Amino acid sequence: MADWSTVLVPAFFEENSELNHTKLKKISESTGVDVVTLKNAFTGKGVGFLLKTGDYSRIENIVNGFKNHEIPCLPVNAGDVDNSVKVVKVKRISPLSNGMKIESIDNEFFALDKSVVVIADTPSPSVESVKKLVVSSKKLVILKAGFVFPVNFEKVRVLNFDGKVGLSQKANLVDILERMKTKGNLLIDTSFYFHREFFLNDLELYAKFLSYAILNNFYNVNLPDWLIVKSSERERPVYKHSIYRTKAEIMKFQYKKSKMDRLVYPPYFFVIAIFFLLMTGFRFEPFFAFSGFLMAFLVSTYKLFKIWKIKNLIVDTPTSKIRSVAAGFVEVSGRVFSKQPVVSPISGSPCVFFRYEKQVLRTRTSLNGRRRTRWETVEAGEGFSDGCVISDGTGEIGVNLKNATFVLTTKYETTQKYTDLKYGLYGNAGVRYIEEYLMNNQSVYALGTAKPVSKSVSYGKFLSELKRDKDAMDEFDLNGDGIVDPVEWEIAQKRLKDKFLEYKQIKGQAIDLVIDIDKSNRVFLISNEKEESILSRLKFALPFYFAGSLIFLVLTLWSFTLAF
After folding, report:
1. What is the pLDDT of residue 76?
2. Nearest CA-CA partner of 176 in 241, 91, 112
3. pLDDT classification of 502: cutoffs 50, 70, 90
4. 103 beta partners
5. Which helix (H) or strand (E) holds 372?
6. Tens digit of pLDDT for each residue in 520-539?
7. φ and ψ at residue 188, rounded to 5 degrees
8. Helix ranges restricted to H, 21-55
């Protein structure tokens, strides 16, 4: 194991609670650790992990800072964990009346009847079901103080209770673990979800640190109450996003991105396409050149008219104040925001939208012996925030970002993710990440179709905002006990209709609309650039597409005469 040190801290994960940001800033000043790193270390179940460093003096400074704030912590060296925790290669798991018996490949026996923890590489932090944990995970580890038992279902035999037959290995293990959990001898820990970046997706290494924490009576230590507060729904970020790893998924992602966004970029591909077709088309057969030129002509002509259409729509559509927007094709400017922004995995930015590609530098040797090095995309991803709205100060209007064409200038390229930086890890020179994102509360230009939403949706949005306003809710608390009970809420319904009308007057009529794509024109554009900048891009691209279309038409006719 590598010679690095870390600090173990208590961690917690509750749906309705979060860490006090003001307190975190004071702890940050005492320890020299940034707030983001602290917040992520304290989030999870059981134990959190702070930094990776070979500088033990820094560890001492961090520990002293925690002690000044009476926060429990445990400094530990990775080598100590390696020496204190034994990894047992499991051969057989048998049920006991109050637990399980594990037999190793070295014919050692271990009885596990209490203080047993099960962890897995589940992508969800809230899995509490044994069945879901076992069935949905690729890797599983059972551990206790000083011992780690990785479970490989291809090599481990799991016996069943009561002579049951026909059950799979996983079903047998579920049966055993369910009984242990019911008796209070088992704890499911899904905090690997929070710490996988720290341990580079090494579940077994993570299990060793948890086992070491149990060995030192640190696993069930709690954070002080003053550090935890009720969470604000408006500020809680969402980390879930779509990830594409197979070639088919990546190609689909790149096609969608190119189809949607490259419409307004200068068509430099024309020069490359003409050169390629002239060099290769006639080498084999004039018919192939004719086919290629015809296809290029059709594509360039289609894009020419598409860009012409978008340019005319931008010029002919006046910018509207959101308060007075009506259903139909609209153009608005304002700030886009969501109460639950997504966090980009590369730059760590709070966004309403992001997409990224992970590229690896690959060297390939051709048949003629030439070596070529190029960047190859091995992973891609994108994330959208729900409940996005655009506000210009006069009102708000919903926006469905999942159907939008994005023209963004916020492009970020790096060799390491922000989580790598957070944990003191260095990037690989052969790997790079390219990310584009739209920041939460960023100014945007939007061109699309405003569609009506059902009144129940806008009314539900009104109720959601009202319930977060304590002063407004106090008005319906008739008995003054601080809680609006069902009877009081039923009485309040009669007055809510008037308040909803006032709410709509304040927000504007666009509260009942959402900007989306429409089948009639298929144009839905969102950009962090101003309208003038987008128009200049389009005007610059139009002559290229026109020239390219004309050139391909001439080449098509010429190659036709040669082929036929």
Report:
1. 93
2. 112
3. low
4. 92, 109
5. strand 371-384
6. 778 888 988 888 888 887 88
7. -90, 125
8. 21-31, 35-41
The per-residue pLDDT of the chain, averaged, comes to: 80
The 3-state secondary structure of 471-492 reads: HHHHCCCCCCCCCCCHHHHHHH
Number of Cβ atoms within 10 Å of the Cβ of 407: 20
Single out the residue of 86, 189, 95, 83 nearest to residue 133, CA to CA: 189
CA distance 180 to 415: 45
Whole-number Å distance between alpha carbons of 520 and 517:
9
Each residue of 251-272: b (16+ CB within 10 Å) or e? Answer: eebeeebeeebebbeebebbee
What does the alpha-carbon distance between residue 127 and residue 11 come to, in Å, rounded to a whole number?
Answer: 17
The residues, ordered by sequence, that sit 6+ positions from 202 with a Cβ below 8 Å of its Cβ are none
- Measure the CA–CA gap between 73 and 62, rounded to whole angstroms: 9
Contacts of 167 (CB under 8 A, 6+ apart): 160, 175
Nearest to 357 by CA among 417, 432, 261, 428: 432
AA identity, residue 436: E
The amino acid sitting at 140 is L
**CA–CA dist 151, 488 (Å, integer):** 54
Q: Give the chain's largest Cα–Cα span.
A: 92
Task: Say whether 274 sits in a helix, a strand or coil.
Answer: helix
CA atoms within 13 A on the CB side of 196: 14
pLDDT value at 446 more than 80: yes
| pTM of structure | 0.52
How far out from the chain centre does Cα 469 lie? Answer: 29
Token couple for 337: 């925001």
Name which of 52, 159, 50, 153 is nearest 102 in CA terms.
Answer: 159
The predicted pLDDT at position 10 comes to 93
463-486 per-position pLDDT tens digit = 666 666 666 666 666 666 666 666
User: What would the two tokens of residue 339 be?
Assistant: 């109460």
| Closest to 360 measured CA to CA, from 429, 412, 309 | 429
Angstrom distance (rounded) from CA 429 to CA 414: 10
Check residue 174 and give left, alpha or beta (phi > 0: left; psi -120 to 50: alpha): alpha
Is the distance from CB of 485 to CB of 477 less than 8 angstroms?
Answer: no
- Residue 164 confidence (pLDDT): 62
The position carrying tokens 């010429």 is: 558
Local structure of 254: helix, strand or coil? helix
**Rg of the chain over all Cα atoms, to the nearest angstrom:** 30
pLDDT digits (tens, 9 = 90+) for 294-331: 877 887 788 888 888 888 888 888 888 888 888 888 99
